[in-house]
Protein: 5'-nucleotidase domain-containing protein 1
Organism: Halteria grandinella
Amino acid sequence: MQPPNLLTDYDAVGFDADHCLVKYNNVELVKFLVKIEAEEFVELGWPKEMAEFDYENDLPVCLNATIFDIDNGLVIKLAKGQEVIQAMKGINKKLNKQEIESVYGTPPIFKNYQWPNTTHLHQNKGAYWVFLTYFDTPKVAVVLKAIELVNSGKTSKTYFDIAVDLRTMVYRFYVHYNEKEVHPIATFGKYFSEVIKDPSRFIQFQPELRDSLDKLRKAGKKVFLGTNSHTEYANLIMTATLGDDWRSFFDIICCACRKPLYFWDMKPAPFYVVDPKMPNLKGRAILDANDLSAEPHQTYIEGNSKTLTHYFERTMGIYDREVRVAFFGDHYITDAHAASTNPGWDGIAVVEELALFDPELEDGKESQHVITDKSWGKDAYFADGTRGNLKLNYFIGQVEDSARYMLPFVRNIDMWMGQ
Ligand SMILES: [Mg+2]
């Protein structure tokens, strides 16, 4: 398929923030997350050994798009047809073909997984947790270490407890807001406080993106941000990426936007005007596109793609045809796939691993890839096997089917803005 032309194919272009517009130093981030997540497990009652990592050997297990098969205590990689092509029962402790078939049958199929789910947490009923994006890959090392401890009898915890503790940890680290209130991130969990101290340790400043976003807006495109991060963290990471005036590059900004529900909820959430006086920061609720401000650079909490599409129709005067929207995101399900389910919308997947195959796309910047060859085999992210018998990664196959296109970094979009 031909790559898109953002200037001629679309009326509006939207971006996810984390691992999309915002480029993290992945090696630094993944190392840091493995450390604090394992430490949290120790606080949740795991043996101290849990937090002992040999990063040189252990980090290469952190492969994107793997699945924790909770019932069987394995981290697996799937190929097309949900075939299990690799499995580990500990850090770099791989199962051979016979062992895999003894668990999953011949051919070995992981039948429990159902696209487009990301987790299924019912004990002994085909439970699983899918690791997608660079925020999830550190969990692979943590889970494999925990599986080893369960298998060695050094803990009375079970495989299912690993998932329960993962969920507790996610809530303690990242879920700093609920319906009633938003907690300041500086005093919430082990993650945010460290990023606040020195954002540049984790996030790359990308001044060149300012030109790309400017070019889109000068060409008459509506440019918007749709991030699940709440307003305070979104401000921190976007400032680190573009500078203090980052809002000036967007017509509309949606924070805490509940993807994938943003794209397909049967009961779409309103756009809440930010009100610092409210404990949950939610001011006036807007559900009618006519009530959204025509002034650019507005920040809202939540919102939904249907109302946003009407907003584009109204503000751009497009009534005789479908509005065409491109949405960039690194999450294959909640960004690329979910956005694509809207009429006129194309999801575009940000797949950093692609840069390993085309160094020209690196743009001279330090990409900081977590190289997983040592644990999963050379270039195993996209396909496993030998020439002539390559088996495509299941999730890459799914994203190929649902997204219009893939690219490694948003800073590559200039090549899609030809005349
Ligand atoms: Mg993201």
Residues 16, 18-20, 133, 329-331 surround magnesium ion (CB under 6 Å). The mean pLDDT is 95.
